[in-house]
Amino acid sequence: MDIDGGKRKRPLSDLRRLVEYGRNDKNDVLRRGAEQGGTVMGFDPALNRTWHLASRPRGDIRPENFAMQTSPRPEPGENQFRVRLLYISLDPGQRLWIREKASYLPSLPLGGPMFSFAMGVVEASRHADFPDGTIVTGVFGWQDYALSDGTGAVRSVVADPRLPLLARFGMLEHIGLTAYFGTLDLLQPKSGETMVVSGAAGAVGSIAVQIGKIMGCRVVGIAGSDEKCAWLRDELGADAVVNYRAGPLGEQLQLACPDGIDSFFDNVGGECLEAVLDLINMKARIAMCGAVSQYGADDKPYGPSNIYNLLMKRARMEGFIVLDYAADKRWWAIAEEQLVQWHLQGRLKYRLDIVDGLERTPVAMTRLFNGTNAGKLLVKVSDDPTN
Amino acid sequence: MDIDGGKRKRPLSDLRRLVEYGRNDKNDVLRRGAEQGGTVMGFDPALNRTWHLASRPRGDIRPENFAMQTSPRPEPGENQFRVRLLYISLDPGQRLWIREKASYLPSLPLGGPMFSFAMGVVEASRHADFPDGTIVTGVFGWQDYALSDGTGAVRSVVADPRLPLLARFGMLEHIGLTAYFGTLDLLQPKSGETMVVSGAAGAVGSIAVQIGKIMGCRVVGIAGSDEKCAWLRDELGADAVVNYRAGPLGEQLQLACPDGIDSFFDNVGGECLEAVLDLINMKARIAMCGAVSQYGADDKPYGPSNIYNLLMKRARMEGFIVLDYAADKRWWAIAEEQLVQWHLQGRLKYRLDIVDGLERTPVAMTRLFNGTNAGKLLVKVSDDPTN
User: Could you tell me which residue, A27 or B323, shows the higher pLDDT?
Assistant: First the structure.
């Protein structure tokens, strides 16, 4: 896979190399400010637009942290194929990829091409395993086109006749599987227990809420607006909801959890984690899926002062990344099929939040951090040929 | 068991009731200041001295937080026996029992009798299962004599001819078993990994260091003096040691752990935990055994700001209390025998730090928090009849 539009031919065999690759782009002239300068370009089949990291965000991520560069549409070499991007997935954890300090991935160098999990369609293939028209997912740049040799994270998607294509992003792939493994492997919820989910109206959180309900838990969702809370309660079946913007979180959570908290699926960290730690029951489990409240606090994140409640309550807190589960293909396939079944049974819903146009990707990204996103956030790059 | 010298006859069936019992002592007149007033009394077989909680410590624990009360030596009723205390175990976790807020036990009420895990000998028995001369362990007051009906945590000790009696405190009971379960059940160390122990020269820590070595780890001990560090390195076989008073902990630890940290047996919490979190490897395990640095910070303990490294490294942190393992008598017995075997093989050593005289108990207690204790801290109350 080549995320730089064909100018370089080195295949990238894994995520790590993908990130390091950006180092070679330092001397390129970045064409800045497609957004700021008012030049909002649409999709042009002859051009390859690519968003690069222009500056590291301090605190909140901002559109001007990214700059657009264009080059001609790339042509595949032997054993390569071109991917026309259809949808780019935007996820809170990506904030970590562009901070100075390494996270669960090495840090993207300044000037390097920004990337995402994404979906595309194969064109101009010179690779036997990926004929034209194949739908693929993988890690691609924020761009119109990518070249690939099929290595790395690229996978063909066999369309499931039971599901629309975008269900993959709404409830499978890194979204549904994160919720599945975080809940079933780490939280191991028991029927009748109280399970709390933070970032509950987000892509992963909303699936975790529903899995908690399926497992028989009393599920309490924490979200940031009355609209999100209403959706969690009325559509997804949350037993109680807390709008953290509506009043003191600790007090609201205590009211919502009269029997304490047995398990916590945490996407937020910080004060949210602290409020939960105050209420955990004996042998409680906390799955650290994300800490979106702290991603902007590079220098000094907020450390909960009551972390020692883990000791008092003999409780467990564990971080996880869904990529770690990908090696177990059998478990992964079982999990996917279970999610599909729950969906077909009407027990698992998802909501998509689609922004149209690659040129809007940086602006769309900020929505993950200012509370305006609900459900799975995607950028539509070009038209889906299966539609 | 009756910890109030026979004046009340209600049996106490468990720790929780033991703590609640103190509530009835509120109206008693506390005779304060055996230490401060200069009246240091020795053991008198006709009297029962008992230490009560006179005030809650703010920050560091102080001798004047306790006050002594005396009463006649108690006489057992039917199906009771009297326990003459021999040794009282002092452990850092007891600081939590006397804070305002409940910990892993309910808080001891002001004026209530302070208690400890302890060892004594049965006298004047009117209980068939506990004849005179039986050595018992259990939770008893800081006192000369206690009455018991054999319920609660009281257990007969069958002397092991392979070991001195005090080996129970040095490497078995709540000390050795805490180190055993914390290491083998929670940390699950693999040969060749780096295991760090904080409070490494303490009673539990020093056993954990040696178990780590037995398991084939590279063990790094953190302690608070050059003498303790030398003991860890030269006597217990630690591969590297860090004196946290000798310089910046993070820098020293980094030097001592060139390959990062795979598992951490934490007795200290706070900045020590933070320094370790900075260096954890993928899938690291942290056993929260104690947080002695934070026990005095009732209002606002120090929360490590880098707790999110658990997420980046997919690591696990878990609190535990050895009492939770007591229910599994088979596992407990296997663990005890394993510890004894390691000791007999010369691979597991312990060090006792014995303070003479019940009257010195509060002063001795402060040594757990000011760095002057090394090894298992005990107060000798009266003469061991088996010696």
Answer: B323
CB contact under 8 A, B305 and A304: no
* Portion 243-302 of A in contact with B at CB < 8 A: 269, 273-274, 288-291, 294, 300-302
Give B321's contacts in chain A (Cβ within 8 Å): 311, 314
A230 with A148, same domain: the answer is no
Q: Is residue A7 in a domain?
A: no
Kindly tell me if the per-residue pLDDT of B253 is higher than 70: yes
Which of the 8 DSSP states describes residue A232? Answer: I
> Both ends of chain A: CA-CA distance in Å?
26
Instruction: Say if A315 is an interface residue toward chain B (CB within 8 Å).
Output: yes
Of A303, A323, A343, which residue is a domain's last? Answer: A323
User: Who contacts B245 (Cβ-Cβ below 8 Å, separation ≥6)?
Assistant: B224, B225, B371
- Find chain B residues with C-beta within 8 A of A274's C-beta: 303
B291 Cα to chain A: minimum distance (Å): 7
Q: Is B164 a member of any domain?
A: no
What ipTM was estimated for this complex?
0.86
Q: Determine which of B274, B308, B312, B322 to mutate to test the interface with A (most A C-beta atoms within 10 Å).
A: B308
pLDDT in tens, B160-189: 899 999 999 999 999 999 999 999 999 999
Structure-token match 């990130």, residue found: A19
Strands (E), chain B: 47-53, 66-72, 81-89, 115-123, 135-141, 145-148, 155-156, 194-198, 218-223, 240-243, 261-266, 280-288, 316-319, 352-356, 376-380
Q: Do A304 and B302 touch (CB under 8 A)?
A: no
The reply to whether B358 falls in a domain is: yes
pLDDT digit string, tens, across residues A27-71 = 232 333 333 333 346 888 889 999 999 999 988 899 999 999 999
In angstroms, the separation between the Cα of residue B223 and the nearest Cα of chain A is: 21
Look up the domain containing B144 and give its range: 15-158+352-380
Q: Which residues of B touch A320 (CB under 8 A)?
A: 311, 314
Host H or E run for residue A52: strand A47-53
Q: Give this prediction's pTM.
A: 0.87
Nearest to A305 among B273, B300, B314 (CB): B300
Regarding whether A150 and A38 lie in a shared domain, the answer is yes
Find chain A residues with C-beta within 8 A of B103's C-beta: 312
B37 and chain A: CB distance < 8 Å anywhere? no
B50 and B146: one domain? yes
Both structure tokens of B245: 């008073």
Of A34 and B93, the one with more pLDDT: B93
For residue B384, the model assigns a pLDDT of: 86
The residue type found at A155 is R
Indicate yes or no: CB of B317 within 8 angstroms of CB of A317: yes
- Name the domain count of chain B: 2
Place B13 in a pLDDT band, splitting at 50, 70 and 90: very low
